[in-house]
Design a protein that fits this description.
It is a single chain. With about 300 residues, the chain is mainly α. The chain has one domain (about 1-115, about 145-255). The protein has helices spanning about 1-40, 40-55, 65-90, 95-100, 105-115, 120-140, 150-175, 185-210, 210-220, 220-245, 245-255, 255-270, 275-295. The longest helix is centred in the first third of the chain and has 38 residues, at about 1-40.
């Protein structure tokens, strides 16, 4: 059950990472802030892998074609998923877009079943749906207008959730494709390859099309370094979770990130919690509890 601990840590770190990326979006733009996560996160992924192989006195497993197909497919999907998420957050509030993005839990359950054959029992499917419904109750505010201005960020948020779902399934597939090795070594190896590919691909694209944003991220190296570290740190624990259980389990438990965001909003911005939000949080807790009991 170590995947539970790993997922909780990953959720906490992801809230901090998203907050940092939003602050960088104003200075670097959507693509620039997305690139920071990968370019500055890659060195930390290598450090994590080096530390784990040294402590465990083991070596990183050799990649194969199946590993590359799953890992690079997941990495490619994550780049576009993260870009859509940040673009949506520029038009709507942080918590609302996060909620739409969290339809990922439902989508990853479907993709995991279809692509990897991950087990999806009726109880587990119900838990995913209940927790996702709770997220929506938290996000939807009373009296909020759902007109044309809300349609694009809503679609962006849901589409980013779908791309994140594909990425999660791809990463789990990559981890499972590696030769026999300790689970945390396989997870760290997959993370290093994924971030390396993302940093190279997006970095090359920015040199050609967004060189100014790339150079500006170097001048904002302190903020970028912290965002990169938090991104790599969160991903390290997400990947640990993927190496231990189905991606749907990890992403459903990861919905507690919305609860953490609510706590931050209340503590930092002194926002009151409505009855609707309390009901939504209760559903998230019930859904997550049902998921854990089904294990």
């Amino acid at each position: 059950m170590l995947w539970i601990v790993a997922t909780v840590i990953a959720s906490l770190a992801q809230v901090a990472r998203n907050a940092m990326q939003i602050s960088l979006t104003a200075s670097l733009g959507t693509i620039g802030a997305t690139q920071v996560r990968f370019l500055y996160g890659f060195p930390f992924a290598l450090v994590f892998l080096a530390l784990l192989t040294t402590v465990s006195q083991s070596t990183a497993p050799a990649p194969n074609l199946r590993f590359f197909a799953f890992t690079f497919g997941g990495a490619f999907a994550q780049i576009f998923g993260n870009s859509l998420l940040l673009a949506a957050m520029r038009e709507r509030s942080f918590s609302v877009v996060t909620a739409f993005n969290k339809t990922e839990a439902v989508q990853v359950a479907v993709f995991g079943l279809l692509i990897l054959g991950d087990e999806l029992t009726l109880a587990r499917a119900a838990a995913v749906l209940v927790a996702t419904a709770g997220v929506f109750l938290i996000a939807v505010k009373a009296g909020e207008k759902w007109g044309e201005q809300s349609l694009r960020p809503t679609l962006f948020g849901i589409a980013s959730g779908g791309l994140y779902a594909i990425a999660a399934v791809g990463y789990r597939g990559g981890i499972l494709a590696l030769d026999d090795a300790l689970y945390f070594i396989r997870a760290s190896t997959t993370l290093a390859w994924a971030l390396g590919f993302q940093a190279l691909l997006l970095g090359a694209w920015m040199i050609v099309y967004r060189r100014e944003a790339l150079l500006k991220s170097l001048t904002l190296w302190r903020q970028s370094l912290f965002a990169g570290f938090m991104g790599a740190f969160a991903s390290q624990f997400w990947f640990l979770g993927f190496s231990l259980t189905a991606a749907a389990n990890v992403r459903t438990l990861g919905l507690i990130e919305v609860l953490f965001a609510q706590v931050v909003s209340r503590r930092v911005f002194r926002e009151r919690t409505s009855a609707r939000e309390i009901t939504g949080m209760a559903l998230v807790v019930v859904g997550v509890a049902a998921l854990l009991l089904s294990q």
